[in-house]
Design goal:
Strand content of chain A: over 45%
Radius of gyration of chain B: 24 Å
Helix content of chain A: under 10%
Number of strands of chain A: 53
Shape of chain A: elongated
Distance between the termini of chain B: 41 Å
Shape of chain B: elongated
Structural class of chain A: mainly beta
Distance between the termini of chain A: 33 Å
Number of helices of chain B: 9
Number of domains of chain B: 2
Largest interface: A-B, 45 and 34 residues
Largest sheet of chain A: 22 strands, antiparallel, barrel
Oligomer: heterodimer
Helix content of chain B: 25-40%
């Protein structure tokens, strides 16, 4: 329901309260304007604020030093498990609410009471959410977070609560502000807010430009130390078995495919120039030394560079005394820049993967070992003699050695592109458009009609310069036109000493032969940009009528009734390379499109009970077609017991409908620990945990007939309020069932390949797990189903106290959420077998849920000065991926001071602010692990060497809200003309 | 409208006689025709709503009827004859926007659908009134007001600020400050922001108009301003 008149009406109606006059005294005004509140469609002339709403207002947003919406989300103690950072690229650059950690799709985001839109990327589970990064901070007057289920009022997604973003509608004047912050990354922003009233209406425009820098992994000292070997590259956790250069095995050409296939028992040899070319041979104590590995630490930007340009406008026009037209329009473009490293050759045509290298390759210096049918000998190029080392041993009598056919396992580019000025960047562009317009019509008899039409569209374009034309690349390697060996980097001017009958495929002929270095021209023949797009659009048509139904004694019962039509259209369009199976990844990804239509009806009633309170009833039905529909009721009540004490409570059911992706297909990525390794005889996979963590692709297919997730929610709270002090204690409980999730977690699926643990037995084959030739897990697939449940209850505490000290005002406030339980049914058998409270919840579909989150602050105002000191606390919790090792608690301190000048620049007011967040420079808590027997892993092993298994990737918890940036200093200015 | 009529009138020598007579009468009318005040007419002209504008002018006209009848006595006959002459300018209040498309014949009612200022013209034309009475602009040069609406803007002509005393300060539910003035006006802060004001006492404020026509309240003596809107 539009709270479009909240600004003016809240003032005028609330004046009634302030003045102590009854609303009818204001009724001289022809159109008495009323407030609509979050959680209800009914307009009220009085509102006593007893619903469990937590508010973050514009003044607080300034005083916590928020430069972007993510900073606001971190302040909410009821929010847990939002994705703030995303190393794996899938959700880099977006942010969202996640109230009670019930899922990214279980909080509904509204703008002025209307649905805000859908982001073009979904959560890991395929649920939709609203990307908060698209809103200019300058437009936010306050964010009202309603912390109980509200599907009976708003429909799908309002399970854990609703975040209603109220704009600065009604703002008049011109305000320019900006800031700069310095930390591990630097960021700056510039904002404008303007508004003017004219005879019959009002217009507002807000704009923000925001820019931040990029941070790669090794730029974080603590991350480098935790995972990158603490200075010893051979023990880094970022080593990939698919190196660049790579490793070779003796092979022959398969008579059917024509590609290399290993000879029986082929031994693997790392590239002889491995380390000289920037590769890494791992520590033989923990990693097989027959592999040339690649350190991809800097392949990933932990914090992406971003540029955001955002505009939000709103306009309303009183066409007549009884009709008001309103429109909101916003546009946002967010460009995200992340590193791209060397891509994989997952579609290598050689048997078991990799590329075929023929004996004729100009830089293939391996010859078959005459004494070992499975072995190779490497001939140093300086000693290469074409008369002895022959491409065909039978060609001449002098030939003693046969150049070998190789299966070469490598990635085409590695150190050539990573960590250098030529590092290619993946550019992701997120574009958001939304327009929402409607009419408010006064029908007479105190009834209002609100009819609105909203359309929002979001689109993401991923432009990856490291796309690979797989077939082309492998053909060039076969032809000798591309040199995959280490000599290309270690000895680029080396001229091939081989007797080459056909030199047409070599480069730099003018230097007198084939040289080891590859040219840009050849690279461009197979290295192509890959552009993927995906978009989601949502159309919402709302019609709501609200007004007074009848009088009951001295009270008036109000009602609202209405309907809604929503249409969501989703499309994903991978690059044509992917559609042809030609890109570097496994399988074929074609275009995916989906559509969902929803029709909803609702009714709501509010009955005041004398002077002491009110009861609210709501009922809503949503129909998704295909016999999927849901009806949800809600009853809530608020009573004042004494002048200072009130109670409130609600019970209702809410739901989250299956999204278009969940009915189709969702892809994401995850980090998993591999219980197996290719350390068995002949390189077979056996259950031997070598502490390897992989980043894998996850594909989850949907199933038609998926039912909505259902929640039952009960809240009860007590409020105590005096002139200076306000406190509220709320108890909440959620029973959330029929959760849509992959039938099993990816870690669980991989672990099931070693059901008996670390016993060196061969792994159990599973079609859902795809491993490449080196044994690394590349992709896990599963299917969506209604499985699992979670039951949670806890307590929210909010209190604030205001003191007047002479001419100064001091405000103390505290907000905390304490979790009593968070029990998860992980396997869908109906028993709540997992205690997720105080746990990272990696092995189920939820995320980090500490038992206690709390914020406290002291804010001081005096004349032109203001200052704030804040304390943030996130409790410690267990890492279920690491044998329940404890992840430390997190305590940070923020401080700011500002001074307002009058008439510094012209006649307006200028406010200058300086602040420091995370004053003590806390590092994010480490993602520790225990050994499988439960004993804690230590940083160094008993032999004094670095223990690379102690920390799990990514080394920090990206869902906890721990800030990676360390101590952050900022300055800000604001000028009000 | 004035110019068009003037142009026609200039062609006739008769006009000059009328002009001299008009000037004479004008001087006389000046002293007596106080009931139609230029400032009032300007105020009406600035009202945006058509209905309210009409009502405003009618109110003035009603008040000026009496004055016109009084002023008409000193030079009735001559002026009426002049008004009846086809080429003489029909008297108009100087603040009307010149609407060249309208050429009301003297003495005839003017149908003017476009502007609400016309009713005053109508009133004047229906009752042949000496030009001197209704033409209340002190300067004789009728050109002076031509196009004046572009010179005057709303913010330039109306009061730029108001001084008052605040007797009470309350807060809305959302925390915006509400200032109750001694002249029974009530002004409220548009957005909740901290604003320092003297507590528990009456204090002087100045409410002025800002850069985008917003109202800004300033505690007398403090430099700080807060954007407000009048609610009562």
């Amino acid at each position: 329901m539009a709270s479009t008149t909240v600004k003016a009406s809240a003032v005028s109606a609330a004046i009634a309260i302030a003045l102590g006059t009854a609303p009818p005294a204001l009724a001289q005004d022809d159109s008495i304007e009323e407030i609509t509140v979050t959680g209800s469609h009914i307009r009220r002339t009085e509102y006593d604020g007893r619903a469990p709403i937590q508010t973050v207002d514009a003044q607080t947003i300034e005083m916590i030093g928020a430069a972007q919406p993510v900073d606001i989300i971190k302040q909410l103690s009821v929010n847990s498990g939002s994705e703030f950072y995303n190393e794996t690229n899938a959700r880099a650059g977006v942010s969202q609410f996640n109230i009670r950690n019930l899922g990214l799709g279980s909080t509904l985001t509204l703008i002025n009471g209307k649905r805000a839109g859908i982001a073009p990327v979904a959560s890991e589970a395929g649920t939709d959410f609203y990307d908060l990064n698209q809103l200019p901070l300058a437009m936010i007057e306050r964010i009202e977070v309603l912390t109980n289920g509200a599907s009976a009022t708003y429909g799908s997604q309002a399970v854990a609560g609703v975040a209603n973003i109220i704009t600065r509608k009604g703002f008049e004047g011109l305000e320019i502000s900006g800031g700069y912050s310095a930390s591990e990354i630097n960021a700056w922003n510039l904002n404008m807010a303007a508004g003017a009233g004219f005879d019959r209406g009002h217009f507002n425009v807000y704009a923000t430009y925001y820019e931040q820098g990029k941070m790669d992994r090794t730029q974080f000292d603590w991350l480098d130390y935790r995972l990158n070997g603490a200075g010893d590259q051979t023990r880094s956790s970022f080593l990939s078995g698919t190196g660049s250069p790579g490793s070779s095995r003796r092979a022959m050409l398969d008579p059917v495919t024509g590609e290399a296939t290993d000879v029986a028992g082929a031994i693997q040899y790392p590239d002889p120039d491995c380390e000289a070319a920037g590769g890494v041979i791992g520590d033989p104590a923990i990693l097989a030394s027959n592999t040339c590995r690649y350190n991809f630490a800097d392949q990933v930007s932990v914090i992406s560079a971003e540029q955001r340009a955002q505009v939000f406008t709103e306009f309303n026009w009183e066409i007549s005394d009884k009709v008001n037209y309103y429109v909101e329009a916003n546009f946002s473009e967010n460009q995200i820049f992340r590193n791209a490293g060397g891509q994989l050759l997952a579609t290598g045509k050689a048997t078991n993967g990799g590329a075929t290298v023929l004996p004729s390759h100009p830089f293939n210096f391996f010859v078959e070992d005459p004494g070992d049918p499975a072995g190779l000998l490497y001939i140093d190029p300086a000693s290469w003699d074409p008369t002895i080392h022959c491409t065909d041993i039978n060609a001449a009598a002098s030939c003693q050695f046969q150049t070998a056919t190789l299966r070469n396992i490598h990635r085409p580019l590695g150190p050539d592109v990573t960590g250098t000025a030529l590092t290619p960047e993946i550019q992701r562009t997120l574009q958001y458009n939304r327009i929402m317009q409607g009419l408010e019509i006064e029908l007479g008899g105190d009834w209002f009609l609100d009819a609105s039409f909203g359309y929002s569209k979001s689109k993401i374009t991923t432009d990856d310069p490291a796309g690979l034309r797989s077939d082309m690349y492998q053909q060039m390697v076969r032809d000798g036109a591309w040199n995959p060996f280490g000599t290309r980097l270690a000895n680029p001017t080396l001229v091939s000493p081989k007797d080459l009958t056909d030199t047409a495929n070599c480069f730099n002929i003018e230097l007198g032969g084939c040289t080891a270095a590859n040219s840009e021209d050849s690279r461009r023949q197979w290295n192509q940009r890959q552009v993927d797009t995906a978009s989601v659009s949502e159309t919402v048509v709302d019609v709501v009528a609200s007004g007074e139904l009848f009088d009951f004694g001295s009270n008036t019962v109000s009602a609202a009734v209405g309907g809604q039509f929503r249409q969501v259209i989703y499309g994903s369009y991978p690059d044509s390379l992917s559609s042809a199976g030609e890109d570097g990844s496994q399988g074929v990804s074609g275009a995916v499109e989906g559509r969902q239509d929803v029709v909803a009806y609702f009714v709501e009633m509010v009955a005041p009970i004398g002077d002491i309170g009110e009861v609210q009833l709501a009922l809503r039905n949503e129909d998704y077609g295909d016999s999927v529909s849901t009806t949800d009721p809600k009853i809530s009540a608020e009573f004042g017991i004494t002048e200072n004490i009130g109670v409130r409570g609600s019970w209702g059911s809410s739901f989250q409908a299956p999204t278009v992706r969940q009915l189709g297909r969702a892809t994401s990525s995850a980090f998993i620990d591999d219980p197996a390794s290719a350390t068995g005889p002949g390189g077979s996979f056996i259950c031997n945990d070598t502490g390897v963590t992989n980043n894998i692709g996850v594909v989850v297919e949907g199933a038609p007939g998926l039912q909505p997730q259902d929640a039952e929610n009960f809240n009860f709270g007590v409020i105590f309020q005096t002139d200076n002090f306000r406190a509220a204690v709320d108890y909440f409980t959620f029973d959330y069932t029929n959760l849509i999730a992959p039938e099993a977690g990816v870690q669980a699926i991989v672990n099931a390949q070693c059901p008996n643990g670390n016993d060196s037995s061969p792994i159990v084959q599973d079609v859902r797990v795809f491993r490449d030739a080196t044994g690394q897990v590349r992709q896990v697939s599963s299917q969506f189903t209604n499985i699992g449940a979670v039951e949670t209850d806890g307590i929210d505490v909010n209190a604030d106290y205001t003191m007047e000290l002479g001419n100064s005002t001091l405000m103390l406030d505290v907000a905390a959420t304490y979790l009593l339980s968070y029990k998860v049914d992980t396997d869908g058998d109906g028993t709540l077998d997992f205690d997720g409270a105080g746990n990272r919840n990696f092995t189920n579909s939820f995320s980090t849920m500490p038992e206690l989150r709390a914020n406290a602050a002291a804010t001081w105002f005096s004349g032109n000065h203001s200052a704030r000191l804040g304390l943030n606390y996130i409790d410690s919790y267990k890492n279920d991926q690491g044998g329940d090792r404890v992840i430390d608690s997190w305590v940070t301190l923020d401080g700011m001071y500002s001074y307002t000048f009058s008439g510094l620049l012209g006649e307006g007011e200028t406010t200058l602010t300086v602040g420091v967040n995370n004053i003590t420079d806390e590092e994010p808590s480490g993602l520790w692990a225990n050994f499988s027997d439960g004993t804690p892993q230590e940083r160094f092993l008993s032999d004094g060497t670095y223990n690379r298994g102690m920390f799990q990737r990514p080394g920090y918890d990206d869902r906890a809200g721990h800030d990676l940036r360390g101590i952050t200093g900022y300055v800000r200015f604001k000028h009000l003309f | 409208m004035v110019i068009a009529r003037l142009k026609e009138g200039l062609r006739a020598p008769l006009f000059y006689c009328a002009l001299v007579l008009a000037c004479g009468s004008l001087a006389q009318a000046q002293a007596q025709a106080q009931s139609v005040d230029l400032a009032e007419l300007e105020r009406c002209a600035r009202i945006h709503s058509a209905e309210e504008k009409l009502a405003c002018f009618e109110a003035i006209a009603a008040g000026s009827q009496a004055a016109m009848e009084v002023a008409a006595e000193p030079a009735p006959a001559l002026s009426r004859e002049e008004v009846a002459a086809p080429d003489s300018a029909v008297p108009e209040a100087p603040t009307k926007p010149a609407n060249a498309t309208q050429e009301p014949a003297p003495g005839q009612a003017v149908a003017s659908p476009s502007t609400a200022e016309s009713p005053v013209i109508q009133t004047a034309a229906e009752e042949p009134v000496p030009p001197s009475v209704v033409d209340t602009a002190p300067p004789v040069n009728e050109n002076d007001d031509f196009g004046r609406e572009y010179l005057e803007s709303v913010s330039e002509s109306r009061a730029k600020e108001m001084t008052a005393t605040v007797v009470d300060v309350t807060k809305t539910y959302y925390g915006e400050l509400v200032f109750h003035l001694d002249n029974d006006q009530v002004w409220a802060q548009i957005e909740k922001r901290y604003y320092p004001y003297p507590k528990n006492q009456r204090f002087e404020v100045v409410i002025s108009i800002g850069v985008l026509n917003e109202y800004q309240l300033q505690v007398d003596g403090s430099g700080r301003k807060v954007t407000v809107r009048r609610v009562k």
